[in-house]
Predict the 3D structure of the following.
Amino acid sequence: MQFPDYPFTPQRFAARPGISMSFLDEGPRDGEVIVMLHGNPSWSYYWRHLVLGLRDSYRCIVPDHVGMGLSDKPDDAPSASPQYDYTLQSRIEDVDALLAHLGITGPVTLAVHDWGGMIGFGWALRDPMRIKRLVITNTAAFPLPGSKRFPLRLAMGRDSRLGGWLIRRFNLFARGAARFGTVRALPKDVRAAYAGVYNGWDKAISTLRFMQDIPLHAGDRAMPVVQASAQALASYADRPVFIGWGLRDFVFDKHFLAGFRRALPRALVREFDDAGHYVMEDKHEVLVPAIRRFLDANPL
């Protein structure tokens, strides 16, 4: 496949026996580390413009979560070999293993989007003082706000067997996000880069499993991590925070942005009425230089 504006050579890492993660490691080895975590159904491709704008001075670590992007896409059946458990906890462990593999044990800046927020803030619970700056884009670090109704389009994948089958059979979630996740119409080859890596039943497994792992109730397996993340969120208020938000996001909308504003009242916020879920696609011309200025003005 062709990936426009993605002039990188991804590396591979054995996250678990028989399961490899693809990741980018761009920029000087001694540069300040920016860990960029994508969500569902995107991959490291979401962060490409920011990597290009930072890699001259900053070390950008950008994994494709297992099952996503260019990483391996193992089955989760009990009889599968290798077998992978598509849970939030597994994602957190994978990030931790990757950074340990790279010898990154010091301070980092977290940049997060979508499920990358819960993965990143979940990982941060292990050692919150390592997080020195935050770059937050259309994501969550807390449960669904009480004022927000869970979107029907997500419920179809999370709770419906037929919906799940359609997502894996026709790659509906990734294709739909590439077409409707922005306000500006993405070029055909960019939409193909986002969605094409998930074409096929086996390749689309993680796009569905992410949806099925969304915690809504006390007994859901990801809920303890999400609740712990929510309790810890305000503790980052003393650190530099940049928030870039597309307001035309049917999931991570004004209700989620309000949650971050309450917890992080000193954050520098750029919100856009004319941007959607993939805010880095709609507004990278504005966001990349703004994030660069933010990082440069708040050195570690």
